[in-house]
């Protein structure tokens, strides 16, 4: 199995290197980091925020305070909200492209078990999402240094980066949903529909107060998007995300093993 997985990983990595999608997702994360830096720039000067009017008010709501704790909090919110779309794009591209490009039959003709192909895609997707998160953290650190944000300390950095990485891990787990949807739907469009549906549902469920129990809302609540007055999701909410990710991963592997790929 190890040799099969290594071969599948090499094949998947070659596809990623030849694609422009990694560059697009990387640019999206850098742009999100720069927007967060702009919010912090506005918050550094209350008078400047008042001059900008509504934009200043939005920055105050999103960023909280113009310090390092606020910078990491914004980064976690970016990963929880924007990351669900970006990480979801990674998952639906990894699986959906095989059907849109009509390469699924060729892929399954290789002397590699189908479960190894699915596992390789999942592993590569997780590594891809981790790289995007590190890229975002690098953008936050660079912009924070340029803005000379106050409140830096090793404990603040470790706690903030830990929250960002934990949020990213949960969000990447949720992205397995879209890999399953792209597989069952045999292409991008069904997965895109599921992506938009879950993003909308997460907003609605969180707004009515049940976000801590809804897996797609848990990373955003962990990142603090609901504000300091709302508690973070408990172990049950995090366990729901883990179980969902494991279930979708297993279901994807089973579908690739048993589905009729002759059509």
The helix count comes to 12
**Global geometry:** globular
End-to-end span in angstroms? Answer: 28 Å
Describe the biggest sheet?
none
Sheet-strand content, in percent, reads under 5%
Could you list the spans in which at least 5 consecutive residues all have pLDDT below 50?
none
Rg over CA atoms, rounded to whole Å, is 20 Å
- As a percent range, the share of helical residues equals over 70%
| Secondary structure tally: strands | 0
Content-based structural category: mainly alpha
Q: Give the SSE order as H and E letters.
A: HHHHHHHHHHHH
Number of domains: 1
Mean residue pLDDT: 85
Describe the structure in your own words.
There is one protein chain. The protein contains twelve helices and no strands. The longest helix is centred in the middle third of the chain and has 34 residues, at 114-147. The protein is mainly alpha-helical. The chain is globular and about 65 Å long. It has one domain. The mean pLDDT is 85. Helix 3 (46-52) crosses helix 4 (54-63). Helix content is 79%, strand content 0%.
State the gist of this model.
This protein is an all-alpha fold. It has twelve helices and no strands. It has one domain.
Question: Keywords for this structure?
Answer:
globular, 263 residues, mainly alpha
Outline the secondary-structure elements:
Blueprint: H1 2-17, H2 21-43, H3 46-52, H4 54-63, H5 68-100, H6 104-108, H7 114-147, H8 154-174, H9 176-184, H10 188-207, H11 218-223, H12 235-258
Helix pairs in contact: 1-7, 2-4, 2-5, 2-7, 3-4, 5-7, 5-8, 5-9, 5-10, 7-8, 7-12, 9-10, 9-12
């Amino acid at each position: 199995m190890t040799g099969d997985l290594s071969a599948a990983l090499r094949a998947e990595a070659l596809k990623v290197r030849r694609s422009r999608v990694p560059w697009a997702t990387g640019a999206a994360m850098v742009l999100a980091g720069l927007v967060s830096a702009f919010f912090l720039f506005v918050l550094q000067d209350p008078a400047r925020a008042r001059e900008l009017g509504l934009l200043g008010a939005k920055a105050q709501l999103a960023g909280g305070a113009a310090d390092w704790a606020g910078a990491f909090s914004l980064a976690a919110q970016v990963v929880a909200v924007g990351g669900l779309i970006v990480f979801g794009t990674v998952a639906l591209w990894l699986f959906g492209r095989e059907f849109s490009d009509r390469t699924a039959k060729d892929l399954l003709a290789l002397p590699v078990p189908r479960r190894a192909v699915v596992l390789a895609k999942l592993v590569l997707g997780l590594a891809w999402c981790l790289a995007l998160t590190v890229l975002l953290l690098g953008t936050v650190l660079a912009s924070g240094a340029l803005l000379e944000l106050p409140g830096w300390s090793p404990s603040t950095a470790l706690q903030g980066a830990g929250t960002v990485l934990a949020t990213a891990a949960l969000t990447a787990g949720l992205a397995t949903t879209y890999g399953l949807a792209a597989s069952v739907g045999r292409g991008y469009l069904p997965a895109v529909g599921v992506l938009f549906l879950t993003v909308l549902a997460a907003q609605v469920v969180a707004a009515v107060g049940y976000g801590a129990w809804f897996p797609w809302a848990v990373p955003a609540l962990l990142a603090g998007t609901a504000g300091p007055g709302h508690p973070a999701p408990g172990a049950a909410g995090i366990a729901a995300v883990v179980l969902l990710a494991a279930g979708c991963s297993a279901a994807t592997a089973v579908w690739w093993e048993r589905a009729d790929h002759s059509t």
